[in-house]
Amino acid sequence: MQPDPTAILETLSITEPLVGLYDAPDPAPFAPLVEPADEEECVFAAYERWREGKTLHITREKHGCGAGHLLGVESWSREEAIEFLVDEEGLRASHELMDQWLDAERGYAPRLGHVLIGPLHADQYDYLRSVTFYVNADQLAVLVTGSSYYSRADDSPASAPFSSGCGQLASAIGDLEVPRAVIGATDQAMRQYLAPGLLAFTVTKPMFELLCRWADDPASSLHNSFLKEVIAARGGSF
Q1: Is residue 102 part of a domain?
Q2: What is the pLDDT of residues 86-122, one digit of tens each?
Q3: What confidence tier does 67 reach under pLDDT thresholds 50, 70, 90?
């Protein structure tokens, strides 16, 4: 059963929709569906459609720009990818460094055939792989703190890895079966689709469940006096 994030959303005044990445056997329950307009369209061009309650359906045949790695598809050769990422985007100081990063990058291999990105569907919770909160800096700070509420001293569950915006929804997280979180929307190529103050906080399904438990614990940082002081300083709402 999908846990209820209402306490988080209401306390932090999060008004942007939570966006789930699903790996499902059937896209029909996620309707209304949309798909990339062409092979150049960014996944995040669908952001306004997510806000309208629509779900982006990407397939091996139609996945837009860059999102092929969410389907086990390589659109470019290694040489083409390195030249674009280094020579055009300027994302590493040398071809060698980018080559090393590509060697270390984890891909995402769909288990059930259909990758869907859009609003949460409680009745499809079995197929949920990650959840993304789109938040401002104050909201992000609280969520990062909350993500460590149940962690051990030798575990740091939140990170900000280098990756494409869509990579930060799954492959950059690593093991999706453990509580992990990624600070994302740091890819300049996708920032144009978000409001200037928004960042992403993407969590695995186990972390989503822990955050909802954290929110229901009256002793947690979501309910302390420091947060109340920050909210008061912001005029009563984030």
Answers
A1: no
A2: 999 999 999 999 999 888 887 788 889 899 999 999 9
A3: low
Query: pLDDT at position 138, please?
Result: 97
List % helix, strand, coil for the chain (3-state, nearest 5).
40, 15, 45
Domain-embedded: residue 138 = yes
Pairwise CA distance, residues 7 & 33, whole Å:
29
Confidence (pLDDT) at 133: 98
Give the H/E segment covering residue 6: helix 6-11
3-state secondary structure of 164: coil
Q: Is residue 100 part of a domain?
A: no
- Other CB atoms closer than 10 Å to residue 197's CB: what's the count? 10
What is this structure's pTM?
Answer: 0.94
What's the domain range around 158?
6-72+107-233
- Number of structural domains in the chain: 1
- Across the beta sheet with 19-24, what order do the strands follow? 33-34, 55-58, 114-119, 19-24, 128-135, 199-204, 181-184, 158-159
Q: Which of 102, 108, 118, 104 is nearest to 176 (CA)?
A: 108
